[in-house]
Design the sequence.
């Protein structure tokens, strides 16, 4: 197995908080969370949401991603994301970059975990 590398992407503050909540709820590390998220996304053959692809900050549907999410990733899984982005760009007019793919991957996996349990998200504050 190849050595895991440090990687970072920008996500929304809300997504960042949900990820940490779900990691605690599921009792998994960040490495496991990200690995499972990528595997889930790739197995589901998901597409990218149009809002994820918006780059113009003046667009009212633009999603402001201003929270850095740093994680270790297996180079093979990172390559899968890079390959997905490349293949997506070959078949779609709207182009994407790997950071947009990682954002969508994290959103999809969080949504999956939330709906997988009947209690969803519980604020114990």
Sequence:
């Amino acid at each position: 197995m190849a050595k895991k590398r440090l990687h970072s992407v920008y996500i929304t503050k809300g997504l960042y908080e949900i990820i940490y909540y779900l990691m605690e709820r599921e009792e998994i590390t960040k490495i496991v969370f990200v690995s499972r998220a990528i595997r889930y996304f790739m197995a589901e053959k998901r597409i990218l949401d149009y809002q994820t692809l918006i780059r113009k900050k003046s667009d009212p549907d633009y999603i402001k991603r201003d929270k850095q999410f740093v994680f270790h990733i297996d180079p093979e899984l990172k390559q899968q994301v890079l390959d997905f982005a490349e293949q997506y760009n070959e078949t779609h007019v709207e182009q994407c970059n790997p950071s947009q793919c990682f954002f969508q991957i994290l959103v999809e996996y969080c949504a999956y975990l939330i709906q997988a349990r009947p209690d969803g998200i519980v604020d114990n504050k």
About this structure: The mean pLDDT is 91. The chain has five helices and two strands.
